[in-house]
Design brief:
By secondary structure, this protein is α/β, with parallel strands linked by helices. It has helices spanning 9-19, 22-29, 36-43, 59-64, 102-111, 125-130, 148-161, 179-182, 189-192, 199-206, 221-229, 251-261, 265-268, 280-289, 298-303, 308-329; strands spanning 48-50, 74-76, 79-81, 85-87, 115-117, 138-142, 165-169, 213-218, 234-237, 270-274, 293-296, 342-344. The protein starts with 8 loop residues before the first helix and ends in a 6-residue tail after the last strand. The chain binds ligand FNR. The active site is at 240 (proton acceptor).
Amino acid sequence: PNLTDMVCLHDFDWAAQNYLPALNYTYYRQAAGGEGSYRNNLEVFANYRFIPRQMQDVTTLNSTLPCVTMAALTSILGYNFSVPFFIAPASRAAYGHPKAEAGLVEAAGREGILYARSQFATLSIEEVHALKMPGQVLFQQFYRAPTLEEDQANLDEIAKVGAQAIMLTVDTQSYGSRIRGLRYGFDITENRGYRNTTWDYYKTLCNMTKLPIVLKGITNVYEARTAVANGVPAIYLSNHGGRQLETSPSALEVAHEIYLQAPEIFRQIEVYADGGVRYGSDILKLLAFGVRAVGLGRPFMFANVFGVDGVQRAIKLLKNEVSRDAANLGLADLKALNTSWIQTVQSAWV
Ligand code: FNR
């Protein structure tokens, strides 16, 4: 297929499925167990409906959002980006394209969005950072290493290349039970073992680096509260794209739960979210609960099958959808989004 045939993010999944060897596609697509969390991530957005407002002046929004050189719309840990969505950390981009993560970091630079590099990226951290545009901000995802010495070495490298923040993934004590991937030999449990990320460890890690450490993989309001109490600068609601624990909740459900039980958290610290986001409207729903920025994993890995131009096209398509959807919602300023713009159709909490 041609890149110009790709008109929405799902098209890239379709293209990748038809183009990539089955093993490569499966590595990206796989999820845990019966893949209920994976499906729920996608489908849960339909349980939340917009309440569009008419007679609103949205001309400012229309003229700014799809442009590359737009004024910054989002700040993440104090860094400005063009839109409130970003490229989530995902490993092994070489399964999609020979230039691996180059397409991700370069497209993020062109479009002024955040890219968070996975610790298990194909390109080394030096190689990825060498591809930055002037002033481009990258975050670095982090997994606990078997020893603190290895953690220290990783942290030193992250600081040396100039990454601006660390996303410590806390939902991966073990590699998930990804049944689809087992058929292709993807099971690295024995290599990784089981490792907890406790609050003691978090504090130790904070003392080993000057960079802010975000917690990625929060799935309940209790941990969100505890994170605030422990001085965490930001939490990242995620069930790892449904790849870790089957039937773990979607970020949208967790955001809703936090909103009902501890809404102050959205003001106390920054909250990010990912999982199943495929449309501009999905992003707007997460923002409505107070989420600051929304990540996407698979869509950009599939778009990267076309290299940097593919990833850039995916970003542009999504920017365009956010812009159009906000306009039709009657929302001139994304920062004005709140829960008065959505209603729950069906939820475990009402
Ligand atoms: C991931 N994800 C992930 N997360 C992380 O913290 N470290 C990692 O190395 C990876 N690797 C990874 C590989 C692949 C192929 C995928 C699809 C995902 C999870 C990722 O950051 C994100 O949470 C999900 O991808 C979000 O769900 P969607 O957008 O893929 O539905």
